[in-house]
Every structure is written in C-alpha cells, then in structure tokens.
Design brief:
- With about 160 residues, the protein is mostly helical.
- It has one domain (about 1-155).
- It is about 75% helix and about 0% strand.
- α3 packs antiparallel against α4 (about 80-90) and α4 (about 80-90) runs parallel beside α8.
- The radius of gyration is 15 Å and the shape is globular.
- The N and C termini lie far apart (about 50 Å).
- The relative contact order is 0.15.
Length: about 160
C-alpha cells in the first residue's frame, strides 16, 4: 500500500523531481487532461465522475502517505495539482480562448500563479486543514480562480 500511495500521490514519481515538483506536476497534469479531453474525447459526465473518484481516493492516499511519512503537504505530493487542473477542464467550454495551445498556456500560467499566491480562501484551507482536504482544496480553489479569470478574459477578447 505504501508503494501504491507514493506512486499515486506523486503522479508516477513526478513529485520526486528535485526542482519545482509542483510545476512539473502541473505540466504532467495538463498532459493527462489533454489525453482525457482531446485524445480520448471523454464526455463531461465521465470527466466529472473521474474527478469525484480522484478527489476522494486522493484525500485517502494523501492522509495515508502523510501518516506513514510523518509529514504534512510533502513536496512529493502533486496529485493536488492534477485535481486543481482537472477542475479547470470541467469548465473548458467556458474558458476556451482562440485555440488549445493558447488556452493550455494560460491555464498553466494562471493556475501556477494562483497556486503559489494562495488567495483567500485557498490560504485558509492550506493553513487550517492539516489533512488531505487541506492539501487538495487550496489547489482546487486556484483552479476555480483560473476559471474565473479566463471567463473574464474571454469577455474582453
């Protein structure tokens, strides 16, 4: 179970990249979403069900990993980046700008920005929930801020 949780929460050991594991986790997450959305063309309902499943299994495995490593929000945990970016893709039709390359680039830049600065309530969850939900929710909020920003940007383009 330890090996599986490590593999899962680090997205196949991407979280173990020495420099900027969150950034690498975000890039790999974009690749995963490209596969799910563009190559496999999964319908929104299937994506939503996958997201819900990943949300709960991620919380469980983050808590398990944190317990066995006696850590909280380890830099090796990057599954939260996947969930943050995944939530953005649930709104892809609303945020699409010109073409996929432009949209993916803006998703990456904005998500990393919001994930790093942690605007309220992301900072609240990050500081006050010392469990899997705290690890995950700040990234999901960063994802929602990204969606909101792209919707607003779409109105002006």
């Amino acid at each position: 179970m330890k090996k599986f949780s490590t593999l899962f929460i680090s997205i196949f050991f991407v979280g173990y990249i020495k420099y900027a594991p969150g950034t690498w986790g975000s890039l790999v997450s974009l690749l995963i979403m490209f596969i799910l959305c563009d190559i496999l063309s999964l319908p929104l309902i299937i994506l939503a069900l996958i997201f819900i499943f990943l949300f709960f299994i991620s919380n469980y495995l983050i808590n398990y990993y944190s317990f066995i490593t006696n850590s909280y929000d380890s830099k090796y945990i990057v599954i939260d980046e996947l969930l943050g970016i995944f939530i953005i893709f649930l709104f892809y039709d609303l945020i699409f700008i010109n073409n996929d390359i432009t949209t993916y680039t803006l998703i990456f830049i904005l998500f990393r920005f919001f994930d790093i600065i942690k605007i309220f309530p992301a900072n609240y969850f990050d500081k006050h929930y010392k469990n899997g939900y705290g690890v995950i929710l700040d990234d999901m909020i960063a994802g929602l801020y990204t969606v909101l920003t792209l919707i607003i940007l779409n109105e002006f383009i």
